Hints:
two-stranded antiparallel sheet; 3 domains; 15% strand; Butyryl-Coa Dehydrogenase, subunit A, domain 1; Butyryl-CoA Dehydrogenase, subunit A, domain 2; Butyryl-CoA Dehydrogenase, subunit A, domain 3; alpha+beta
Amino acid sequence: MQLTARQESLSAEARSYVAREIAPYADAWDQRQAVPDTAVSGFAAQGYLGALVPREHGGAGLDAVSFGLLNEAIGRGCSSMRSLLTVHSMVVHAVTRWGGERQRAEWLPRLATGESVGAFGLSEQDAGSDAGRLSTTAERLPGGGYRLSGGKKWTTFGQRADVFLVFARLEGQITAFLVGRETPGLEVVPVTGMLGTRASLLAELRLDDCRVPDDALVGRPGFGLTAVATSALDIGRYSVAWGCVGLLAACADASMAHAGERVQFGKPLAEHQLVRRMIADMVTDTAAARLLCLRAGRLKDARDPETVNATWMAKYFASVKAFRAAADTVQIFGAAGCAEGHPAQRMLRDAKIMEIIEGSTEVQQDYLAQAALREHAV
Length: 378
């Protein structure tokens, strides 16, 4: 699928930036379990946080394919850094599509420049893939506004975010709210020791008598899950799928470089047939995943509703293949690839996370099978 000159240019610029400013530091960030503020500021200065912000609000207003290529480039260097783009863009999308005029005027320019970083507050301890079970509540206050009570877990970049898109039950219906970091009653607690994407500054949000004004409401009451979260999660799933393409490419790059240098049994690993088989799978899966992502992006740009199914398929395929590629990369590096601080170990741990976030592999398999069976019945 041919890219436009602008898309080619954006992709090349992003790859160059990642090679200079992200990839060389990914292992150190992983070990420190944090992306430094300087990296976030540099990322914002490139305009990447404004990727999906409309131009009238100071953003880049990228088309879907260009946004995907940006995620691929960043995912090739560091999955934790790509996760910043994912969750921030989910908040941007929600405010752009469902926010009121005042919300868009207040938040979109700040989200575009990185003055404010957004994070997504949906998952809870007992409500992960089954978002309909969330227990955080919102209560209308007699004098106006709402009181939020409960908690959110696994909030990506929650330690760094300035505004959270929080989902809560209002009169039994799931509803979305924008909650600023400095809102009284909101406590942000760091979450560390995770398996992968360790530098993505995860946090737990604790909401105790957390009061927000009327204009914190995003969309209408009851629109939280069926509209706001669903559309934002589609953007997140698309971002992760492209990030997995980058991760696949990184695995292939590392494996081919090592296989060409490492000599075993009198010849380079690259001359051993079973190693070649692993490399063949990596490059083939990378190409196939990229094509699936391009299809999903082109359908998004055409506003074709089929993009939803295409995005599920792209994310499912890319994440499963990324984990297999990362496992083979560790295999090719051997004991060295198992060591703390080695890129192969980091990529394996990150790839496992990709099979869980924005729809687990099993949820995606179930969804795709149901969609195929419905189409077959017709």
